[in-house]
Each structure stands twice: as C-alpha cells, then as structure tokens.
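re: ur msg from earlier - yeah i can do the D-malate complex, just paste it... oh wait u already did. ok heres what im feeding in:
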Amino acid sequence: MKLFTKTLTTAAIALSVALPVAAADFTMRLSHGDNENNPTHKGALKFEELVEKYSDGRIDVQIFPSNQLGSEQEVAQSLRMGSIESEILYTGNLVPLAPSVGVMMLPYAFTSNEDAHAAMDALKEPLNERLPGEAGVRVLGYFEKGFRVLTNGEREVKTLEDLQGLKVRVSKNNIAIETFKSWGLDPIPMAWAEVFPALQQGVIDGQENPYTTAISSKFYEVQKYITEVHYLIWSGPIIVSERFYQGLPEDLQAALNKAGEEAAMYEREVSAAETEAAKVKLVELGMTLSGAPEDEAKWQEAAKALWPSFAADIGGAEWLEEATEIMNAAIA
Ligand code: MLT
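and the outut:
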C-alpha cells in the first residue's frame, strides 16, 4: 500500500513536470489605491476571477493594491501610455485626465446609492465614446462605496459654522476644491497615499471618504468625529488602457466587459453590507457619528450653485447637458 502511494506520488510529480501549465496569452496588471481590507480590493479579486473565467485563462490578471504601482493619477497616466493595463480608481482622481467622468462628481447629484448605480451604468457607453480620445482609457464597470463622509479630529461638525477653520484634505481636482471653498474652507488637495500620515502628523485635521475606508485605513486611530455630508457618492470606474484593449481579439474584449459589469455588481453588494457594519464598528472604536448637518440645505445650496461653473472641468456645457439628461432618464 505504501509503495502504491509512493508510486502514485512519483508519477504525479513526473506528470506535473512533463506537462507545463498553459501560459496566458495576455497579462493584465490591475492597480488600485486601497488596501486589502477595502471593498475595492474585494471587487478587484472578483474581477480577476471573472476575467480569468470568461477568457478561459487567456488573460492573467495581476492585482497591485495600496498604490504599489504609483498614485491613482500617476497610474492613470501610465494607462494612457499603455505601460500599465488597468486600474480601479476614485472618479475624483481620474477627472483631471478624463474630464467627462466628472459628471459623477457634481455635488448633490444623487440622493441614494441606487440612483448613482443607475446613472453610472447608463453613462458607461456614452463615456466610452469620449474617454479613449480624452485619456486613452475606457470603462469596464463602475464600483461604488456610498457617500463620502467627513472625518476630523478636532470637533463635532453639525453646522457650516462648526466646519470653519478646519484643515480638510480633498482629492486633487477642481470640483472637490471649489465645493469645499463654497462652504468657506480653504481645502488641501493631496494624493490619497499621503492622507493617513498627514492626519497623524496634524498637517490636516480631516478628510472625506466612505465609511468603509475609515475602517480599512484605520482613520479611527487619528480621527474622532464623522459628519454625513451627502454631497458625493464614491464612484470608481474599472478602467483599461485603450491600447491594451484594442490589442485584444473581440471575444476577449467582450470577456473584459462582462467581467467588469459583474464585478461591479458584486462590489456594490459587498460595499453596502460593509458600510452598515462599519458604522457600528466605528462607534465601538470610539468615534462620534453625527449624521447629516443640521443646516444641510445651506451646504446644498452653496455647492449646487457651482454646477454651471463646473462645465469647463467636466468636458464642456454640451456634455454636461447631455450627461445630465442621460442620468435623469436613468434615475427616473
Ligand atoms: C481619495 O480620496 O483619493 C479616494 O477616495 C481614495 C480611494 O480610491 O479610495
């Protein structure tokens, strides 16, 4: 019996040496800026699984989390050149390169996650007529992580007045900067990877990102208060380099699109569940959750008044009109 087992094992080893594992036809590096505890990474793993399944292993996806390949904006530049194949990034970090995606950034455009899903799904194809020309990338699917909430370590923010004087980091784009200015602040644009150390060292007092990020990035260690400013939902496209995409046969392009859309559905579910769990956990960890500002109408009024002035940042007045029509029709 022992001898039989050994013989089998030897045969199995010989077989595995004799039969090389089929190599994929294409390697697709996938970069993102969050760590492995964030819903983005869980969605990325699902995307990898689905691409490899739908391509019958002809595309090998390799995930690089936590900005390992560079900041979200740097990697988006590399996609344009074709030197990195794909990325999942916050819309706010893509908009300086690909202005048309900025329609997802209009403050107070969405009142629920469902509305944002409907809008982003309806925008996918129209955006894919514009983004290859603007930024050398295209969208395969849209992740979503709920409203960006304001955290800070100084004081409870219940009104616009409480907000005044806080040093708040925003992502590096004009829409975020101007929105915070409309609330009376002088916000600090900063790359995502620098945020935690800046909070730790007191360079900034606060930042805004989804609840799940407050958990995965351990903001509870350096922040005390959370305000639900419902101005913006975290949306993040899975983008692929147009050069890479056009080099694929049609069946593999279809595999990427199918995988992108299904991975997005999966990530949205994970994110919704983890957002609820994060709220409970953050209180247990000592944070104060204040809910929406008492004077939310004032925040809205100030930020919404900026919409027309954002046309230049998001691809022009004509696109703003077309995109808002697409979004309104999808939401209705
Ligand atoms: C940011 O604030 O720069 C992003 O929301 C970070 C992320 O991609 O999660």
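cool cool. The pocket of D-malate is lined by residues 33-34, 72, 89-90, 93, 171, 192, 209, 213, 234 (CB under 6 Å). ping me if u need the other ligands too
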